[in-house]
Design a protein that fits this description.
The chain has helices at residues 14-26, 33-40, 44-57, 71-78, 81-92, 98-107, 114-121, 128-143, and strands spanning 30-32, 60-63, 66-69, 112-113, 148-151, 156-159. The protein is α+β, with helices and mostly antiparallel strands and 166 residues long. It has two domains: 14-78, Winged helix-like DNA-binding domain superfamily/Winged helix DNA-binding domain (Arc Repressor Mutant, subunit A, Orthogonal Bundle), CATH 1.10.10; 97-159, Arc Repressor Mutant, subunit A (Orthogonal Bundle), CATH 1.10.10. Helix 1 (14-26) crosses helix 3 (44-57) and helix 1 (14-26) crosses helix 4.
């Protein structure tokens, strides 16, 4: 998995990203991290993880302690829910860890478990909490945006038909 640059932490959800972008938009597109923490009403560590996710997707730029909404971020904030999902689909394919997960899943012919994905990609450790978080991450991001399918009865993920790696 590509480790360079910002990446989306597995505990961050699309709703968290959307919420932080909305808060930043309300603050005229620029705020220091302390202001974001105060306005979002979250712990600073959580806000920093969400900012990392936003930066990996190109929605926010962090510069000298300030979070700055990019043009993509402004465009994202103006969209309705379905438009945001479509936009996230386009942005995720170029951001980590999504890019590595999609590439890995395209190579797999059979459906596989979240445990196998975690092991093969070092996405998380093998604790039940980490596995549950990784499963939620895959469901929230890659099933919602149409890259993966999930069989709840078998607990297996597979790449959705027609998905290609660029």
């Amino acid at each position: 998995m590509d480790q360079q640059g910002p990446r989306c932490p597995i505990r961050v959800t699309p709703a968290m990203v959307s919420g932080l972008v909305e808060v930043l938009e309300l603050l005229n597109g620029r705020a220091d991290v302390a202001t974001l923490v105060s306005e979002a009403g979250m712990e600073s560590g959580v806000v920093l993880e969400i900012l990392e996710a936003c930066e990996s997707l190109g929605l926010v730029k962090v510069d000298e302690g300030d979070a700055i909404l990019t043009e993509l971020g402004r465009s994202f904030s103006r969209r309705r829910h379905s438009g945001k999902i479509r936009m996230l689909r386009e942005l995720a394919k170029n951001a980590e860890p999504f890019k590595s997960i999609i590439r890995y899943m395209v190579q797999k012919k059979d459906a596989i478990s979240v445990e196998q994905i975690c092991r093969d990609l070092n996405l998380c450790d093998d604790s039940p909490e980490s596995i549950t978080m990784a499963k939620s991450f895959l469901l929230d991001w890659l099933v919602t945006t149409g890259y993966l399918e999930y069989n709840g009865e078998e607990g297996l993920f597979k790449v959705r038909r027609g998905v290609k790696v660029s």
